[in-house]
Amino acid sequence: MASAVEQLFAVKARIAAAEREAGRDAGAVTLVAVSKTFEAADIRPVIEAGQGVFGENRVQEAQAKWPALKAAFPDIELHLIGPLQSNKAKEAVALFDVIETIDREKIAAELAKEIARQGRSPKLYVQVNTGSEPQKAGIEPREAVAFVVRCREVHGLAIEGLMCIPPADENPGPHFALLEKLSKEAGVAKLSMGMSGDYETAIAFGATSVRVGSAIFGSR
Ligand SMILES: *Cc1c(COP(=O)(O)O)cnc(C)c1O
Questions:
Q1: Is pLDDT above 90 for 135?
Q2: 211 pocket-lining for ligand 1 (C-beta < 6 Å)
Q3: Contact 220, 37 (CB under 8 A)
């Protein structure tokens, strides 16, 4: 089996090819390497191979492994890509550099409070439930633009992007197109979309970052 580092380079090559194919600038797309369920010992070689941006979906799991890695590699940018409970806002603001999963008023309010208290300002994205799946996190598409505006105007949060996870059993293209359209309406520049199975499609639809786990680290 190929090592995580070999797979990292393969994914980076495919991202570069997808950028060219889509007429995007080289380097327009940031690779977020999703390291959830993998240990520091698995992650370290990937950092040493030059990967600087990582994603985790659970605050508690990230707290167990990332403080030491961030101390060793201070330039790491860590993204929270999983659902955020309001009682974890404090820990999330302290550890993450980008929080991609704001999807309700209560979270926005808690994050605003913690950002003011800690004087630390992670970049912030709103998660949109583009497939309106009942079990999935994210704001409803029809409420997304108004929610971004409320985050800004009521909570003073500088929302920079939108994030989505399309339904597993659907063609992701229309979901990526919807997220791109909402980002224009909301006036945000960043689009976090695309995972191991569909990141090249996401790049064609304008992703500025893709979240790739198993294609790098192997199956979980
Ligand atoms: C796990 C996860 C990913 C990565 O999924 P892969 O299919 O392993 O690439 C991306 N985004 C989110 C929100 C995830 O939880």
A1: yes
A2: yes
A3: yes
Select from 196, 217, 186, 203 the least CA-distant residue to 28.
Answer: 203
Neighbours of 61 (CB within 10 A): 15
Does the Cβ of 79 fall within 6 Å of ligand 1?
Answer: no
CATH for 4-217 (3.20.20.10, 3.90.79.10, 3.40.50.20, 3.40.630.30): 3.20.20.10
79: nearest Cα among 192, 205, 182: 192
Nearest CA to ligand 1 atom 12: 81
pLDDT in tens, 146-204: 999 999 999 999 999 999 999 999 999 999 999 999 999 999 999 999 999 999 999 99
* Cα dist from 53 to 77, 108, 143, 146, whole Å: 5, 24, 30, 30
CB 49 within 8 A of CB 73: no
Q: How do the domains of the chain map onto residue ranges?
A: 4-217
Nearest ligand 1 atom, CA 215: 9
Q: How far apart are CA 187 and CA 134, in angstroms?
A: 27
Strand pairing partners for 212?
Answer: 33
The residue with tokens 């495919």 is 14
C-beta 214 within 6 A of ligand 1: yes
